Amino acid sequence: MWLVLIFLLLPIIEIAVFIQVGGWIGVFPTLALVMLALVAGLALIRQQGLNTLDQLSRDIENGRGDGDRLAHSALKVVAGILLIIPGFFTDALALLLLVPPIRALLIRWGASKVTVRATGVMRRRPQQAWAEPIDAEYEILDDEGLVHRHQPPSGWTRPH
User: Which of 51, 71, 79, 129 could bond to 97 as cystine, CB 3.0-4.6 Å?
Assistant: First the structure.
């Protein structure tokens, strides 16, 4: 229910703030600030997204992980998304998410609401160059559904 309320109130809040800011600084500076926030949001998402994926792959390869660092990076990506959304209210929320103590507070609050159960960790084994061949019996059907059973060995199979 609260999510529906947010989606209903957010546009109204954004329009009201647009009107106020536009009245204070004018139309073109207001639009310039919205475009600047869009560019900053795209840059933040690109930078944080790439860094997060790189760090996550390194953590997986090393068999360790830092959930706190990943959560901070995820909140920075959320801040970038909020910057892309046109409006000053969402931009203010994005700027709050860029403050490390506020992110830490949100992470602690979110962690208190989540229960994590780990049952085990699977690690990737190094792949073998070639596995033993698998012998199987098979029949070759042509387009008409005819069975061809007596074909000479192709060199790819071992004699029995």
Answer: 79
**Beta pairing partners, 141:** 147
All residues at 6 or more sequence positions from 141 whose CB lies less than 8 Å from its CB, including other chains: 147, 148
Q: What does the block give as tokens for 43?
A: 């840059």
The answer to whether 90 and 14 have CB atoms below 8 angstroms apart is yes
CA distances to 8, 60, 75, 108 from 92, rounded to whole Å, are 18, 34, 14, 21
For residue 143, CA distances in Å to 140, 146, 148, 154 come to 10, 7, 11, 21
pLDDT-derived band at 36 (thresholds 50, 70, 90) equals: very high
Task: Report angle CA 69, 81, 59 to the nearest 5 degrees.
Answer: 25
Q: Are 18 and 37 in contact (CB under 8 A)?
A: no
Give the contacts of 13 (CB within 8 A, at least 6 positions apart): 87, 89
Q: Which residues make Cβ contacts (< 8 Å) with residue 98, sequence separation at least 6?
A: 76, 79
**Single-letter amino acid code for the residue at 129:** A
DSSP for 15-77, written as a single string: HHHHHHHHHHH-HHHHHHHHHHHHHHHHHHHHHHHHHHHHHHHHHHHHT---HHHHHHHHHHH
For the entire predicted model, the pTM comes to 0.63
